[in-house]
Amino acid sequence: MLKEAISESEAQADRVAAVVLLHKDGSMLLQLRDDKPGLRDAGKWVPPGGHCEPGESMKECAWREFLEETDYRCDQLEWLMSTRCDPDGTFGSYRLEIYWAIYDGVQPVTCREGQELRFVHRSELSRLPILSFLADVWDRALAAASQRTSRSDITL
Fold it and tell me: Which residues share a beta bridge with 28?
């Protein structure tokens, strides 16, 4: 479930940061998580990201986790949203902060974690196991990218 407001006490809870990397054709880089018992979002397609280390800001975490999982260095990350997640209640809730960036078309991306890593087109979402709010996150990222670039670099 998504909630926009994050209280101070929630800010100290389990913190996760993720990056939505958009290709100029509007596709998004997604990672197929390992399908292991006890792993949050096991077997689902998600934006790369992970848990924050003590003393690390959410943005620093997003940069570090994205680089560790993809070998791709984002030049710039833009904040997209913060939310509280508790998808199925199995693993408890966590604070999720999502950033976005536009793929530079130069650096390769490498699957360093999970089963697979690839740019996925929006039309494929209905055929993939995803988190229920991924389509909304995708739409927000596309809107932010279109507004930020103020030109038609991103195909909607």
Answer: 22, 120
